[in-house]
Amino acid sequence: MAQLQRIVIASSQLQPEQIILTSEQQHYLYRVLRLREGDRFIAMDGMGKWWLAQLAGAQAKILETLCVETELPVAISLIIALPKGNAFDEVVRICTELGVATIAPVVSDRTLLHPSPQKLERWRRIAKEAAEQSERAIVPAILEPVSFSAAIASTTATHRYICEARGSYPHLKTAINEVSPTSQIVIAIGPEGGWTQTEIENALDAGFQPVSLGKRILRAVTAPIVALSLITAIYEV
Ligand code: SAM
After folding, report:
1. Are residues 151 and 50 in the same domain?
2. How much is the pLDDT for 1?
3. Which strands make up the sheet holding 18-20, listed edge to edge?
4. Which of 53, 67, 117, 172 has its CA 20 to 30 A from that of 162?
5. Higher pLDDT, 12 or 117
6. Is residue 187 located within the same domain as residue 130?
7. CATH of the domain at 163
8. Is any ligand 1 atom within 6 A of the Cβ of residue 165?
């Protein structure tokens, strides 16, 4: 099964025993990948289900439902202040590979980038492609950018951490070690210029615990990767 191409389908494409392919998917499967009628691929709904499917014209016949267990046991959300330029593209791609469940891009006091609606579409496409590539069962949700205060007010996660580059705070690894695998974790990462004091105080008021990612100052794009890698190392054996 490992070598079969994976594509994400919308729930509206799913029929009892077949999948209706969009013209874009047909182009990709027949023209780009050079598959032929009868060839097999994996269809995934991005919400936990995979099917082995066989190409049949503009449809694909569902051959069997597949069991996929590639998700982390904990649901991890990231609140990330948008970095400059296109750096967030790589953050979305790598964090998807590492198993993030939700990414909430935020505009903080020191954020320089104010994204266009096209950016959100782009990030969602990148998350979908990275989920296909990394054999995720789910495609992470990329939320609409909001202010940092709105993001911390709306989180429902049971365990909340804000990464602060300076100061004497417990390491994320120590803090997370006490968390049960069924928990929902949210981690906030600041922009290039760091969080303002007011943002940190507001986060603490909203139940966030300040944590360190080590003694070096990481770039804004490196910090979420380190945070997710640490959690993966703790929960995956
Ligand atoms: N300009 C800030 C300064 O000099 O303090 C550093 C900001 S850092 C480039 C961007 C973000 O990454 C920080 O706001 C923080 O969330 C996270 N970060 C980077 N290094 C970290 C560390 N060692 N511990 C915790 N968080 C870190």
Report:
1. no
2. 54
3. 6-8, 40-44, 50-56, 59-66, 18-20
4. 117
5. 12
6. yes
7. 3.40.1280.10
8. yes
Q: Per the domain annotation, does 1 fall within a domain? A: no
User: Cβ neighbours of residue 53 under 8 Å, at least 6 residues apart?
Assistant: 19, 40, 41, 42, 43, 60, 61, 62, 63
98 neighbors 229 (Cβ within 8 angstroms):
yes
Interhelix angle 87-98/117-133, nearest 10 degrees: 30
pLDDT (tens digit, 9 = 90+) per residue, 89-116? 999 999 999 999 999 999 999 987 778 8
Atom of ligand 1 nearest to the CA of 195: 14
- Does the beta carbon of 224 lie inside 6 Å of ligand 1? no
pLDDT tens-digit readout, 139-148 = 999 999 999 9
Atom of ligand 1 at shortest distance to CA of 216?
23
CATH of the domain at 40: 2.40.240.20
Residues 61 and 171 placed together within one structural domain of the fold: no
Instruction: Answer yes or no: do 153 and 122 share one domain.
Output: yes
Of the residues 217, 219, 225, 228, which should be mutated to test ligand 1's pocket, given the most ligand atoms within 8 Å of the CB? 217
Say if residue 99 is in the same domain as residue 176: yes
- Note down the domain range covering 36: 6-66
Task: Kindly state whether residues 87 and 17 are assigned to the same domain.
Answer: no
The count of domains in the chain is 2
CA separation for the pair 178, 47 (Å, rounded): 28
Distance of CA 170 to the CA centre of its chain: 25
